[in-house]
Amino acid sequence: MRTVLSSEFRKNSFHNFSIHKNCSNKKIIFCAIICFVSTASLLAQDNLDAEYLKKTKTLDSTLETLYGVISGEKGEERNWELFKHLFKPDAKLIPSGKSTDGVYRVRYMTPEDYVRSSGKWLVENGFYEKEINRTVNTFGNITQVFSTYEAFKSKTDTAPFMRGINSIQLLNDGTRWWIINIYWTQETEDNPIPAEYLPK
Question: 180 has which bridge partners?
């Protein structure tokens, strides 16, 4: 009986050791997978951050990205993460226009508000906004841009359905450009765009 018990004990001990060893190996493999995935995710994020940073390196690239990221054909999704990357925290988008009672009013939106209110419409209808003229004033690290635009439903359209001016305030922090505010209004029959803000 003692001999049998000893054999069983040795067999069970070996079996338990094998289970423990297998569990340890599985933990090592699991940890290795987690480390690999985490490293890959960090590298991907670093690459994305570097790519986004390039798009805000200059005033030109920042404004080109602004117009490009909201534009697209019907059914084409927009990169709203890139859109939000352009703005400094607490930045505002401020459309203005004349209400039915003849009073000019404004609406204050965060970038997130803009995505919620306009994002679906842009995708469902198609929208291309093109800059046709730009007037720039800079003092130190602050810049004010009067950016005249035309809007189309498709890239292939020849006549715009809307024109207006985006008044864009930006900050250059020494590393990149940030949009602080975009304040805009559309052209109307009683409020045409002045010649000085149109292409020469």
Answer: none
Q: Alpha-carbon distance 79 to 123, whole Å?
A: 11
- Listed in sequence order, the residues at least 6 apart from 197 whose beta carbon sits closer than 8 Å to its beta carbon are 133, 135, 146, 148, 165
* Helices and strands (H and E) in the chain: how many: 4, 6
Terminal Cα distance for the chain, rounded = 107
The predicted model scores a pTM of: 0.76
Name the one residue in this structure whose structure tokens are 């590393």: 175
Q: Specify the pLDDT at position 51.
A: 87
**Extents of the domains making up the chain:** 1-54, 59-197
Low-confidence stretches of the chain (pLDDT < 50) are 1-5, 9, 14, 17, 19, 40-45
Contact indicator for 81, 145 with CB cutoff of 8 Å? no
Residue 144 corresponds to which amino acid? Answer: Q
Exposure b/e, 162-195, CB count within 10 A at least 16 = b: ebbbbbbbbbbeeebbbbbbbbbbbbeeeeebee
DSSP state of 39: H
CATH topology of domain 59-197: Nuclear Transport Factor 2; Chain: A, (3.10.450)
Q: Alpha-carbon distance 62 to 128, whole Å?
A: 17
